[in-house]
Specification:
By secondary structure, this protein is an alpha+beta fold. It contains 5 helices and 11 strands, in the order E-E-E-H-E-E-H-E-H-E-E-H-E-E-H-E. It has 2 domains: 128 residues, 2-Layer Sandwich (Ribosomal Protein S5, domain 2), CATH 3.30.230.30; 66 residues, 2-Layer Sandwich (Alpha-Beta Plaits). Helix content is 31%, strand content 37%. A 5-stranded antiparallel β-sheet has the order 2-3-6-4-5, sandwiched between helices. The protein is elongated, with a radius of gyration of 22 Å. 27% of the residues are buried.
């Protein structure tokens, strides 16, 4: 699978609610960038909703399509996590977590009813979530003498790269994220700057 130049994610959290035959489904959509944030959000929701019976969720991280998870949290298999993920994917977003908190209303909805409820609650939350398109970036570490700082920073600005970290000892160690769409040009220019040594970071 070819890696795209851009990806779409949420700019802020969103919440929506769906009710069916007494059961209440509250969907929470969050922009997230790593799995630690997912555990934290789940813990927060479980404290906020101590009487809820299910905390079903799905997330998708990264841009290669391989980092995702679904969790039915005790609902029948395939009735909760998968419909949530399908809505995430139909919106075309990544670096996102959607948790649907369910309060049971006393009436069994059956698998089709559950699929519809989890799907609808997620779709409503995602409709309320503003999105943004961000560049896919590649990280590089640069090393150079401090006297060359201005030249390097000018190149960073021209390439629309982002400084992730900077350390200074006898020389400058700069970690940057270069937009994938500018990578060929950036590396060509970098090779001409003989005073810089650089390496790609995974």
């Amino acid at each position: 699978m070819a890696i795209p130049d851009f990806y779409t994610t949420l700019t802020q959290n969103a919440t929506a609610e769906f009710k069916d035959r007494g059961s209440k489904f509250i969907a929470y959509a969050y922009p997230v960038s790593h799995t630690d944030a997912i555990k934290t959000q789940l813990q927060v929701l479980k404290k906020e909703h101590p009487k809820a019976v299910h905390f079903c969720y799905a997330y998708r991280l990264g841009i290669d399509g391989n980092n995702f998870r679904i969790n039915d949290d005790g609902e029948p298999s395939g009735s909760a996590g998968r419909p949530i993920l399908q809505q995430i994917d139909s919106k075309g977003v990544t670096n996102i977590l959607v948790v649907v908190v369910r309060y049971f209303g006393g009436t069994l909805l059956g698998v089709p009813g559950l699929i519809n409820a989890y799907k609808t609650a997620t779709a409503l939350a995602l409709q309320l979530s503003p999105t943004q398109q961000l560049p896919v970036t590649m990280s590089y570490e640069l090393q150079y003498d401090y006297s060359r700082q201005n030249e390097v920073m000018l190149w960073v600005k021209q390439m629309q790269a982002q400084v992730l970290q900077q350390e200074q000892t006898l020389f400058v160690l700069l970690t940057i994220a270069i937009p994938k769409s500018r990578l060929d040009e950036a590396l060509y220019r970098l090779q001409e700057m003989h005073f810089v040594t650089y390496r790609k970071i995974d």
